[in-house]
Design brief:
The complex is a heterodimer of chains A (147) and B (871).
Chain A (H helix, E strand, L loop, with lengths): L5 E4 L3 H13 L6 E4 L2 H9 L15 E4 L8 H10 L8 E5 L4 H10 L3 E4 L4 H18 L8
Parallel strand pairs in A: 1-2, 1-3, 3-4, 4-5
Helix pairs in contact in A: 1-5, 2-3
Chain B lengths: L2 H30 L5 H28 L13 H11 L1 H23 L15 H11 L1 H19 L11 H58 L3 E5 L5 E4 L1 H7 L9 H8 L3 H16 L7 E10 L5 E10 L5 E7 L1 H23 L3 E6 L4 E4 L1 H7 L3 H4 L4 H4 L2 H17 L3 E9 L2 E13 L5 E10 L1 H58 L3 E6 L4 E4 L1 H6 L12 H4 L5 H11 L4 E9 L5 E12 L5 E10 L1 H64 L6 H28 L7 E5 H15 L5 E5 L4 E5 H18 L6 E9 L4 E7 L31 H11 L3 E6 L5 E6 L2
Parallel strand pairs in B: 17-19
Antiparallel strand pairs in B: 1-2, 1-5, 3-4, 4-5, 6-7, 6-10, 8-9, 9-10, 11-12, 11-15, 13-14, 14-15, 16-18, 19-20, 20-22, 21-22
The chains are: A alpha/beta (147), B alpha+beta (871).
Chain lengths: 147, 871
């Protein structure tokens, strides 16, 4: 049985706080791992660098991935996730401020499962984030990932 | 019905009536004898008489009415006939008539037995004649006999005393009874006869009717055949009246039937010349006279018939006498055939005359070389008549060598299938003769060679004369030529010298004129480099002014000419041509001059180099202009490259700026919005007075800022990316967009009119964005109208075709029209009509990107019209 967590990759502290606040309202804030740059996100998922350990950690149910990240951009992270055997089927939702056509196109081409724009208004943001979490944690059936 | 049948019927009916009446009188009188009192006798006698008259008149009426009328047409059937026909001809009513006989008889028996009056115990058998008669009349023999038998038996048993037994009857009663039986027999037989006659008559009438029908059908067929026959036909009776003529006849000659009702009229009109008419009439009469018997057509000969339209047709007539004495005449138009025949005969006659009278020798051979025809001239030459020649071959008629010559030429024509003209030398009767022969093939219908025709002229004498004349001429010519030659030589030399001189003079004059006015600098020198000529341009270019240069040395006139040029001149004098397309010279005054020059030698009459020609053209101005153009071009190109690079960089910068805006500008706004809300949610209770309202304003401000950023991005993206021009149907697009808007706001009542044909060339997604903005504006600004109307239509003016979107909405103040297309500029307050003022700016940028134009016009509360045109 998979550890039912969400990985949030977000460099903006304010956005992070708002998202966690939104998740708190639906009582799932305690199951969020937050990573603040692209390189760390990759290390976290693949148990490398700072996250090197003898036992492979469980993968999250879904990754909420921002695009504008330090070190490695969100799209680069997504590319690495998809090329790695362990994470190739991991559900990834691109969660970004951008409404650029090219970002959306590129994300799907690389293999994002979903592309969600962060609404500007907090009420809408809270609604969007809580729906996303509920959907990926409870409704969606994840693939049987090979170790 | 034939009268014989009718007569016989009448005779029979009369006979039967006679017998019936006699027996009635006899029987009834016998019956009356039984009465003693006079009053009853008288009463009965009267009744008997009335009864007989009634019966006989009924019988007569029936008998007379069943006799059919002596008429050709089928008579109308009377009701009685119908009844009788039914009784006679159908089996079931026949059985019915038997039943009727039985029932009637029984009824009569019943009546007799129940009669209240006692007739002195008389049997009164007379009463039973009535059922017998009626049964027989209706049913014939069978029912009559049945009625008779039943009546006689029942009467004998029940009526004649002593009743209820067959024995012990009085003799006078038995007599009456036997009379009744006799009457019954007679009536039955008579009725049967009538029935038989009637039946036979009916059958005959049916047959007659069928025959009539067949006759009518046959007549109809004949009439159609006659009318539509493809040959002209007419029918005349024995009195020469034309009864009918068919369509083809009317077409052929043009006359209608009522125009020429008799044969006499016909002849009068169609043979206008009296002599011709007389001949035609006699020819016609002779034809009629030798007509063998009816129904046999004869050829009545050929006639020249004048048609109504004035033309003349040669017609062959066939006539046939029909059994009723009328004539059926057929006219066949043989005009063409006669004309062809005449033409062929004429041609044959002409050909025959030509063949017979030509001086040439003419022969016709079959493909296998046998003679088929030889004209008289050939017959004379060979000394044989045509019969002898025909069927023979060349070998039979000529010596072997000559025959071979002929055959060889024949074979050539057979092989090539083309005419051949040749000379043939033949030995005929020991003499060698030369012939100019023309041999050509004659083809049959299938394109194969049927005959070879040879037309030959004896040219032996001409040949000989020619040869003699030739030798004579040759001798004469030689002598004359020798004398002439000397004379001619002197003459020719003199004339040539004179002509040359003249030509030279003219040539020199032309040349000097040409050199003088040539539009280039041109000078001619002799071997010593002395001027022979110089053009005016030369003198002007080298500022020689009015100096006379001819005869002076080039180097003397221009002492500055250096050794290099002198060497060039020497090369040219040696025969070389030297030239330069552009050459730079620095003059004494320091001015730079560009020249195009060429120096070439000229040859004198002996082919030796007589001197040189210098040609030079000052191309300085041209050269300078060219250099200027080069310089300008280079400059322009450099500037274009620079500007393009700048533009590309600016575009790229703008792009990355927009991207950054999209990503980074939103995050702080979201923070403002989010934390403001968080503040209200978490600490709302502690906020005093206006504090809460201020937070609301922060939230509203952040939202507004977000919308402005979105608008800015939309504007910057509206024309980003490559443009793909294609044909766009604006009708479909307009209707789709308007339907979409109506679907989003179903409560709005908006009527729209879209012209049936709106087509432009442009980038589909950009034009859709522009049209969406225009329609959305129209939709928005008509929101306060009860009856909103949006129109998309075409307008033409002298310069372009405009696509216009107009509405009857709030419109705008035309004095502010300049601000309409500027981004974030709005002409209405936010609470009137919400928006950020980016739509029309986007539309304008898209239209400008296409190289088009957009205009706006409107008034406050009177709607707005936006028109754009695309190149």
């Amino acid at each position: 049985m998979r550890n039912k967590t969400i990985l949030l990759v977000e460099d903006n502290l304010q956005d992070e706080m708002l998202i966690l606040r939104a998740l708190n309202k639906v009582n799932i804030a305690n199951r969020i791992d937050v990573i603040r740059d692209g390189q760390q996100a990759v290390d976290f998922l693949l148990n490398r660098g700072a996250y090197l350990q003898s036992q492979l950690s469980e993968l999250p149910m879904v990754v909420l991935l921002d695009i504008g990240l330090p070190k490695l951009s969100g799209l680069e992270v997504l590319k690495i996730i998809r090329t790695n055997w362990r994470t190739r089927l991991l559900p990834v939702v691109v969660l970004t401020s951008s409404d650029e056509e090219r970002d959306r196109q590129r994300s799907y081409e690389i293999g994002a499962n979903s592309f969600v724009r962060k609404p500007l208004d907090f009420v809408e943001l809270a609604d969007t984030v809580s729906r996303l979490s509920i959907y990926w944690l409870s409704i969606n059936e994840p693939p049987e990932n090979s170790p | 019905m034939k009268s014989i049948t009718r007569n016989r019927f009448i005779a029979q009916a009369t006979l039967w009536y006679f017998l019936l009446a006699i027996s009635w009188i006899f029987l009834s009188d016998r019956l009356l004898m039984a009465f003693i009192d006079v009053p009853s006798l008288v009463w009965l006698s009267t009744a008997k008489g009335i009864f007989f008259v009634l019966v006989s008149s009924a019988c007569f009426t029936l008998a007379l009415r069943i006799v059919p009328a002596d008429d050709h047409r089928a008579p109308a059937r009377t009701r009685e006939e119908a009844i009788i026909d039914v009784l006679i001809s159908h089996p079931w009513p026949r059985l019915l008539s038997y039943a009727f006989a039985v029932v009637l008889t029984l009824v009569m028996l019943f009546v007799r037995m129940r009669m209240p009056v006692d007739f002195d115990e008389r049997p009164l058998l007379l009463l039973f004649v009535l059922p017998i008669s009626l049964a027989a009349l209706l049913g014939g023999l069978g029912p009559g006999l049945i009625a008779t038998a039943i009546t006689s038996l029942l009467c004998l048993y029940f009526i004649i005393p002593p009743v209820h037994g067959f024995v012990g009857k009085a003799s006078h009663d038995l007599f009456q009874w036997s009379m009744l039986v006799l009457d019954g027999l007679i009536i039955s037989l008579a009725s049967e006869t009538i029935h038989r006659l009637r039946y036979r008559e009916q059958t005959r009438r049916q047959q007659l009717e069928e025959t009539n029908q067949a006759l009518r059908a046959s007549e109809e067929r004949f009439r159609r055949l006659f009318e539509n026959a493809p040959v002209a036909m007419s029918l005349a009776d024995s009195h020469s009246t034309i009864l009918a003529q068919n369509n083809r006849m009317s077409q052929l000659f043009g006359y209608a039937l009522d125009e020429l009702p008799t044969i006499a009229d016909w002849q009068q009109r169609t043979y206008p010349d009296p002599a011709v008419r007389a001949q035609a009439q006699s020819q016609w009469q002779q034809a009629l006279a030798r007509m063998p018997h009816p129904d046999h057509a004869i050829d009545a000969g050929e006639y020249r018939v004048s048609c109504k339209d004035g033309s003349e047709k040669i017609t062959q007539l066939f006539t046939c006498k029909l059994s009723d004495g009328s004539y059926l005449t057929t006219f066949i138009d043989i005009t063409e055939r006669v004309r062809d025949r005449t033409t062929i005969l004429d041609r044959e006659r002409k050909l025959g005359a030509i063949i017979d009278n030509t001086l040439a020798l003419l022969s016709l051979k079959t493909a296998d070389g046998r003679y088929n025809l030889a004209n008289p001239n050939l017959q004379r030459l060979l000394g044989m008549d045509e019969k002898t020649i025909v069927g023979k071959t060349d070998t039979d008629l000529f010596p072997a060598e000559s025959a071979e010559v002929l055959r060889a030429n024949d074979r050539k024509v057979l092989a090539t299938q083309r005419p051949c003209t040749t000379e043939e030398i033949l030995v005929v009767k020991g003499r060698s003769l030369t012939f100019a022969s023309n041999i050509f093939p004659i083809f049959d219908r299938h394109g194969a060679i049927a005959y070879l025709c040879r037309i030959a002229h004896d040219i032996s004498e001409r040949k000989q004369a020619e040869a003699e004349l030739k030798s004579l001429l040759e001798q004469q010519q030689e002598a004359r030529l020798a004398a002439l030659n000397q004379m001619q030589d002197a003459n020719i030399a003199w004339a040539r010298a004179k002509a040359t001189l003249k030509i030279l003079q003219e040539s020199e004059e032309r040349l000097s004129l040409f050199i003088e006015h040539a539009p280039v600098a041109l000078a001619m020198f002799d071997r010593q480099m002395c001027y022979l000529a110089a053009s005016r341009r030369w003198r002007d270019d080298y500022t020689l002014g009015g100096q006379t240069v001819v005869g002076r040395s080039y180097y003397e006139v221009f002492p500055e000419i250096g050794a290099t040029w002198q060497a060039v001149h020497r090369r040219v004098l040696a025969g070389e041509v030297v030239r330069a397309d552009e050459d730079r010279f620095v003059r004494d005054n320091g001015r730079v001059q560009w020249l195009r020059w060429e120096i070439r030698p000229w040859c004198d009459a002996d082919g030796e180099v007589g001197g040189i020609v210098i040609f030079a053209e000052d191309i300085t101005r041209f050269k300078e202009a060219e250099e200027e153009v080069h310089r300008l071009n280079a400059d322009l190109e450099r500037r274009v490259v620079e500007r393009t690079a700048e533009l590309t960089a600016a575009n790229r910068e703008l792009d990355s700026f927009a991207y950054a805006v999209s990503h980074d500008l939103r995050a702080p706004l979201r923070a403002m919005n989010g934390f403001s809300r968080a503040l209200i949610e978490d600490h709302g209770g502690q906020l005093q007075g206006e504090a809460r309202m201020f937070l609301e304003q922060i939230i509203a401000g952040s939202r507004k800022m977000g919308e402005l950023i979105d608008g800015l991005l939309t504007l910057s993206r509206s024309i980003r990316g490559p443009m793909r021009r294609q044909r766009i149907d604006l009708v479909e697009m307009s209707v789709r967009l308007l339907s979409e808007m109506a679907g989003n706001e179903p409560e709005r009542k908006v009527r729209w009119e879209v012209d049936p044909e709106l087509v432009v060339q442009g980038d589909a997604s950009m034009i859709e964005a522009a049209l969406r903005n225009l329609l959305a504006n129209a939709w928005k600004y008509t929101s306060r109208r009860e009856e909103a109307l949006i129109r998309v239509h075409v307008a033409h003016d002298s310069e372009a075709t405009w696509i216009c979107v107009s509405d009857n909405g709030a419109g705008f103040d035309p004095s502010h029209a300049g601000k309409l297309f500027q981004p974030f500029q709005r002409l209405h307050r936010q609470e009137e009509f919400p928006g950020i003022g980016i739509g029309l700016a986007t539309v304008q940028r898209i239209i400008h990107r296409h190289g088009g134009t957009i205009t706006a016009s409107g008034r406050v509360d009177a709607g707005a019209i936006f028109c754009f045109s695309l190149p």
